[in-house]
Amino acid sequence: MARPAKSTFTPEYEALRAELVRLRKNAGLTQRELAVRMGRVHSYVARAEIGDRRMDVLEFVWWCRACGQDPLQ
What is the pTM of this model? Predict the structure, then answer.
C-alpha cells in the first residue's frame, strides 16, 4: 500500500497557500505587517506561505482576521 503524500505537498494545500497570499495582498499587507498583526515573527508568515510550515485551523482563523476577513467566508 502506497504511503499518502504529506498534506503540505498536495494540490489542495497549494491552493490554501495561494489563498493565504491572496488574502494578505488584498489586505495591502506585507509579510512583516501581517506578522506584527498576528503577534508573530516575520519568518512565521514567510514559512507558511512557501509551505515550510503547516498551518492549523486556529492559525488560519487568526490569519484571516488579521487580514480583515471572516474565516467562514
Answer: 0.86
